[in-house]
Amino acid sequence: MAPLRWGIVGTGKISQDFANAVETLPPADHELYAVAASDAKKAAEFAKTYTIPKSYGSYAELAKDPEVGVAYIGTINTNHFELCKLFLENGKHVLCEKPLTLLLEHTQELVKLAREKKLFFQEAVWSRFFPAYIKLREEVKAGTLGDLKLITVNFGVKIAEVERIFKKELGGGSLMDIGIYVLQFTVAVFGSEMPQTIKAVGVLNEEGCDLATGITLQYKDGRIAQLTTNTFTETTCDANVFGTKGSIKVPKPFWAPEEIILNGESLKFPLPGKAKRPFVYGNSEGLAYEAAEVKRCIDNGLLESPLMTQEETITLARLEDEVKKQIGVSYDELYKKK
Fold this sequence. Notes:
- Residues 4-122 form the Gfo/Idh/MocA-like oxidoreductase N-terminal domain.
- By secondary structure, the chain is α/β, with parallel strands linked by helices.
- Helix content is 33%, strand content 23%.
- Helix 4 links the parallel strand 4 and strand 5.
- It is globular.
């Protein structure tokens, strides 16, 4: 089987970590083939750092490169919709960073387009591909915890002064950044059904970006999820699942874990191979799990990963949409200007 040729879209920090992680995978399976940025110089510098054969000063040029097998989109949130559309319309498989889009209707449109084009299309919720998450879901499915009753997840880090959080024009806010993780954890455990009741509160800045949220989801059969995001303070950053027969704790960082605690027993899942250079974000070695799953799916003719389905992506978008409405956050104006 030929190596999967990656086209990297955007040269920011997450793209750096993704390229660094892909380099840890067998070169017979994965090739960093091309990179594009709105600034040709930045693209060329990125290509030099990661020994990438081609660099482009526009995203359209990369989209039209017939040798690129899959596009990894790591740009700012506000560009995800238009770039996903560009690459899908040019016949490329796509792995796009979370949040897939900022608007529910955009997410639905992209999923529909990908299905029509019969292309692999994945929201890059990297947590789902960690062995610890796979084990957690196996234990839940096996009934080890009995009837599920409660999920608690908190994600608090001091990032209120970071531009991607406090600037509306960048698609800012805690919900569409760290909030993705608390919501996806709930969907991973409770499934893609929508809750019966959603209650949310938020603390907004002058630009209308949420800097903290509290979310309660009530599902059928008495299941409840209590979720929080906070950009003012550090919290324990763990996730917990409680059932009638036991519990699972996912310690910090619950979004990129090396351990779960099942009924008091610690189960360890060491990170994969060492990279050539340091990562920007903690445990980004785990991005290799995601890249490997993309290749596995494409090689086997799958259009989505069973570990993070498009149905789950749409459920996430619906949850985000309702929470945004309740706390008074909207990104509609960002797209009316275009």
